[in-house]
């Protein structure tokens, strides 16, 4: 039972991992496992100790927030670096200069340009044959 360590020391109380030490009231109590943080009416966060006596819950929350924020920032930077790396890998060096490897949008645009070029050549050939017919008809060839 954790209450037997009340008015003793924090170290004695926290030998049992199920106990929570409240430094302001010098009480040792069962840790409220149904809640992540002990409620304020039980013990203030800055006075509550669990696991070790030299870290209070308030400092623990701040430290975990800083570590979590740092990890999120690092994850974001890594994602940006990976995206930049993928874009730069599309440029594969070969021959005289860098060869740009096309992605799906570039390939689609190239196909459309090729179709337009072929249609334009067909129209030119058709116009040339019409002009040749007209020249033959009027004897200007």
UniProtKB/TrEMBL annotation:
The chain crosses the membrane at residues 59-84. InterPro entries: PSI, PTTG1IP. Residues 1-54 form the PSI domain. Residues 90-141 are annotated as: Disordered. Keywords: Glycoprotein, Membrane, Signal, Transmembrane, Transmembrane helix. It is found in: Membrane. The keyword Plastid does not apply. It is a single-pass type I membrane protein. GO terms for cellular component: cytoplasm; membrane; nucleus. Residues 102-141 have a biased composition (Basic and acidic residues). One of its GO terms (biological process) is protein import into nucleus. It comes from the Eukaryota. Its main location: membrane. PANTHER family: PITUITARY TUMOR-TRANSFORMING GENE 1 PROTEIN-INTERACTING PROTEIN, PROTEIN CBG20567. This is PTTG protein. It comes from Sinosuthora webbiana.
